[in-house]
Specification:
Length: about 425
Amino acid sequence: MNILILGSGGREHAITWKLAQSARPLSLFVAPGNPGTASLAVNLPVDPLDFPGVCAAILENNIGMVVVGPETPLADGIADFIENDPALSGVAVIGPRRAGAMLEGSKDFAKEFMVRHGIPTAAYSTFAPDTIDAAISFMRGLKPPWVLKADGLAAGKGVLIINDFDEAVSELRAMLGGRFGAAGSKVVIEEYLAGIEMSAFVITDGISYRILPEAKDYKRIGEGDTGKNTGGMGAVSPVPFANPSFLAKVEEKIIRPTVDGLRADGIDYRGFIFFGLMNVNGDPFVIEYNARLGDPESEVILPRIDSDFYDLLEGVAHRDLGSRSIVISPETAVTVMIVSGGYPDSYGKGFAITGTEKAGESILFHAGTAISDSRLVTSGGRVLAVTSRGVSMEEALAKSYASVRVISFDGMNYRRDIGSDLKNNKS
């Protein structure tokens, strides 16, 4: 089987790495990939948003399965495009069609879906530019902080949590005034849920599902969850507070109703579902859906899958996922993300990266790297995801941080407190 993975970040490197471990005879291609995927697969110079180019690559390389990493191609309908091309008949796409990707592509759609199917979520209302007075009135009825969400995809920057009412109103006006372009043409205003965040993941063939390891990521740039939001500064799996009782609630109240709800709504969903959850006094609530695996969560959940990952993907393609099993390691995986100086604001590129060969106890997933003059250099905000497994979270953390300390480039930054909030939260 020839498999094409679409994307260029740490998530796609982790998917490629996991598939490369399969006992099955697989040939892997990544478009466009990165220096990390190049050691495991053939990188193709194709933009995932260039749908005709993707289809040409599928034909040229006799691809039988496409795994879609990022959200934007899914929201733009890459699965539909491939499935509607007669020349690509029989090519399996791991990723939902546009209708299913709306779970991530429109927060208003997702909230309506949750309400319709009785899935616990925060109270909300959606507003457009011509209803801004009603939006302000709605906000007055909520307790601070105020949660504002751009309806569409905004590269992870479209969610604001604001404690000051006047500031929240100002941000609301800016969002509806075009700050996020089309993504902010509508704004969802939500009740704030106080609790602890975590993420759950499933793979589904539209009928059955398999639950993947859960994770907790760290979004803020600074220690103690301070500063600006990022694409993710690290992650931990499993989550200590996610005990069997809580995870049973997640499956009963959220996972199963979501998969059943998609089928009831006539949405043929085949791929991954990411559940952004809040643990509120022992009960799970959905904060958001993603229509793909998370990043950096992929870098901790995939190393904990001890069974053949391709078997699950084949189960989606053949629609017999219910007959496939998954084996999850009881060990802990921890990812520490190394980022460029200045990230998530402006940052330089092209700085030489040294010491990666010394990080022997960890897996290095490339997120924003390139090769220049035969040297590994930085090419993005998030540069390397440093992942380690251990019998305890403490052991995994020690391994990852030991590896981080031997890696170096100009302006290098990372959080030094990944997992620290979980050490005493194991209820």
